[in-house]
Amino acid sequence: MADTQSLSKLTLMQKLIKIQEELEAPKSQFNSHGGFSYRSCEDILGAVKPLCSKYGTVLTLSDAIQLTGDRFYVVATATLFDLDSQQSHEVTAFAREAADRKGMDDSQITGATSSYARKYALNGLFAIDDVKDADSDEHQKQSPRGTTSTQSRPQRSGETAPTTQPPKTRSWTAPDGEVVELVDCEVPGCTRGVTLANYEANRRYHEGHTICKLHHDNGDWKSQLKPTTSTSPAPAGVDQDMWDAAEEASHAENPYS
Does residue 58 sit within a domain? Predict the structure, then answer.
């Protein structure tokens, strides 16, 4: 491990690179309503504070309110200050306050928006996430087998044809202020949903249905819905029955594990 004197010789950018390389901030929070994992601003701060101390830097967060048109935005700034060189580097992020959120007063709406903006300012400063956002179009285009093939085979007797239409989604705001796209759970009367990012894996596991975590855990969805799973055509030279068996085995991957 490098001593304090050698670390003090690093420039601010060199220290920032070290912190980015060593920072681990996994998505340790779980939202049972949407069935997805996420990281909060507090998660990032808890992980980065020891690294800031190690490299002789100080991290500060600040907010400003900006009116654009008729909507208010929270402008969050994350600043990394180097104690040795007295230099600093900052990144800003914007988040728009919701016009209305049930069960929240004005101060809570601003607080949730601030938390969301601060999280993304920290993401930008420390280069958190080197993969596509789970809600991005690029992520959605990736199939479970790493291919975007859409070919189909003749429908078998008693089998429901697979849909090629994108699922209907609705926007939902998570407790940390992040807006995600949900696909409604198919259990009659259920108001929960599944994130669009987990949609395909969820349907494979639940025999062609979209099932929220609550009914997944209860195991009561099978008695209320009929299976709709259909397998894809086998590649050239591969026996269709063997391919079907392999696909059925892939359905056993629990999307909530």
Answer: yes
